[in-house]
Design brief:
This protein has a single domain, classed as Vaccinia Virus protein VP39 (Rossmann fold, 3-Layer(aba) Sandwich). About 40% of the residues lie in helices and about 25% in strands. The strands form three sheets. It has a seven-stranded mixed β-sheet with strand order 4-3-2-6-7-11-10, sandwiched between helices. Helix 1 packs across helix 4 and helix 5 crosses helix 8. It is globular.
């Protein structure tokens, strides 16, 4: 699998890359290797593994330190994994070099807004983006239009985004008397402060996501991620209650696919199909 892309100006502010460059050294310790991070990722992988097949050629957006790309490649899926942060890419390449240099994965420094610059030898069988990377982009319709040229008819989009309404988050912050934080997603747009810098975050509804990706892609299914399992900032709570977290993981498998509830988790995983 080989791809090239032409150089283009970086559309977003450089502060976005700077934020994630600074998050990169601690990202795996804080999230990837955490109990909650692993529980939510396992829920995503369960759907990913039954949707994608060995020998599929996949484009991953916002790949972070490469955890998902390495998992897919270990199953025989070819992955072109893109990320806006050079430090995240450096850590992903370090990890893959210490695992195996024969896994079918290539890491590429490329912001999602520039995905239209890719020039693959053939269209991808699918696209994957995990854990809210797309929530940092205001105009997802432009991303959908770019992906429509890169994905074969019948190909899959598996996109995991933060939801507009997270019931556990609302209850958690209300319990701590933080009303503004409890309702931060409900306003559709908020500003996260990371490493002393501000990052705009957008929370589209399911209806908006359907509209953004239409007419190129049709929504087939969706399920909740983190409906019973709490968000990652509850990690200290989870460390004190591992048996309760295991119970919540079992409960998650039952209630995450249910109508209404599946749109109220920390994230939602949507499966779109490329329309011919």
């Amino acid at each position: 699998m080989h791809s090239t892309f032409s150089s283009a100006s970086y559309d977003r502010s450089s502060i976005v890359e700077e934020i994630f460059d600074q998050l990169a050294p601690d990202y795996d310790q804080i999230f990837t290797e955490s109990l909650i991070g692993r529980a939510q990722r396992n829920a995503v992988w369960k759907i990913l593994d039954r949707t994608l097949s060995e020998k599929d050629n996949i484009l991953e957006l916002n790949c972070g330190t490469g955890e998902d790309a390495i998992h897919l490649a270990s199953r025989g899926v070819s992955v072109l994994a893109c990320e806006a942060s050079r430090e995240m890419i450096a850590r992903a390449e370090y990890r893959i070099n210490h695992i195996s240099n024969s896994l079918p994965v290539v890491f590429c420094h490329l912001p999602t807004e520039q995905v239209r610059e890719l020039r693959p030898e053939s269209q991808f069988d699918g696209v994957f983006s995990n854990f809210s990377g797309l929530n940092c982009i205001e105009d997802l319709s432009a991303v959908a239009s770019s992906l429509s040229d890169l994905v074969r008819p019948g190909g899959q989009l598996l996109l995991c985004l933060s939801t507009r309404f997270c019931l556990i988050e609302i209850a958690y912050y209300l319990r701590h008397g933080q009303v503004r934080k409890a309702l931060r997603r409900c306003h559709a747009h908020s500003v996260a402060t990371l490493k002393g810098m501000q990052l705009p975050v957008y929370y589209p509804t399911l209806r908006q996501l359907r509209r953004f990706f239409s007419p190129h892609f049709r929504l087939q299914t969706y399920t909740g991620i983190g409906v019973a399992v709490p968000p990652s900032y509850c990690e200290k709570w989870a460390l004190r209650r591992p048996s309760l977290l295991r119970f919540l993981c079992r409960l998650e498998r039952v209630i995450a696919p249910l109508p209404v509830l599946r749109a109220t988790g920390d994230h939602i995983l949507l499966c779109f199909e490329r329309v011919p």
